[in-house]
Amino acid sequence: MSTWILGKVLNIRHWTNQLFSITINAKIDTFIAGQFSKIGIKINNKIIQRAYSHLNAPNNPNLEFYITKVTSGTLTNLLHTLQIGDTIMISKQSYGQFILDKIPNHSNYLWMIATGTGISPYLSILESFDKRLYLFLKIILIHATRYSKNLNYLPKMTELQKAYNGKLLIQTILSREYSFNSMYGYIPTLIENNTLEKKIGLYLNNNSYVMLCGNPQMITDTKKILKKKYNMKNHSHKNTGNIIQERYW
Ligand SMILES: Cc1cc2nc3c(=O)[nH]c(=O)nc-3n(C[C@H](O)[C@H](O)[C@H](O)COP(=O)(O)OP(=O)(O)OC[C@H]3O[C@@H](n4cnc5c(N)ncnc54)[C@H](O)[C@@H]3O)c2cc1C
After folding, report:
1. Pairing of strands 36-43, 87-91
2. How many separate domains does the chain show?
3. Do 42 and 144 share a domain, yes or no?
4. Chunked mean pLDDT (size 10), the chain, 249 residues
5. Paired strand residues for 144
6. CA 112, CA 27: separation in Å to the nearest integer?
7. Residue among 15, 50, 89 whose CB has most ligand 1 atoms within 8 A, to mutate
8. Residue 72: CB within 6 Å of ligand 1?
9. Which string of b and e fits 230-245 if b means at least 16 CB within 10 Å?
10. Is 129 in the same domain as 38?
């Protein structure tokens, strides 16, 4: 059972009709980069609650969440109408195992693969500048969206790329639009036909570690290809593997 506290909306930014970010001020417990909080709104004495990944680093008191308004969605349609100064409910604790602690530190390459708002936990992890990140030879951050107008955190990705001084490689992928600056296609297909690795200039191998976040179909399909090509499987406390995942629905 979550302990709920009240948070105040400090900012809400509508990037497109469906994508928005909210910044909340709330005295939650310290979280680990990669974790999520629950956000809720009380209606008729019942809390409607869903999970949202932290986007900001743990040392930043402004809690930022990047959210897709799901057309038929219950909570996101309510969150979408929030205004600066409104109050919402947020879990005091944060949760989840999509964190650096789960990744064996002998991995050479860390692949962070996201669709849509699934970019959030990676931004939080990278913004934490955790010293374990510097143990990887390279970190590859991949953000796939339908259209270039959905790449709202590309400036932040570019800023991080500079800050990591050659350690961090970034790549965007669009699935519904061609653009000079992005690859085109579906992540699992681009891995299957080697296009993604060729473009990055690095190949996945048994010393790579892959994080997958966002669309559950992308996660299922990518895992199938990673198993077929490289015999990669999930990493858990019982079995050593190369993949961890955060399915958003
Ligand atoms: C660990 C975790 C972290 C998450 N972090 C984020 C986050 O940072 N940002 C974010 O936007 N969402 C995130 N989600 C998804 C979020 O918890 C909700 O499921 C989502 O916002 C929809 O809520 P809703 O009440 O509007 O829709 P609901 O009424 O709960 O759902 C309607 C249906 O929409 C589908 N659906 C849910 N999300 C999506 C989506 N993004 N695109 C298409 N279909 C969808 C589901 O199949 C669901 O049956 C996360 C989920 C998990 C499990």
Report:
1. antiparallel
2. 2
3. no
4. 94 98 98 98 95 98 98 97 98 97 86 98 98 95 98 98 98 97 97 97 93 98 97 88 96
5. 115, 173
6. 29
7. 50
8. yes
9. bebeebeeeeebbbbb
10. no
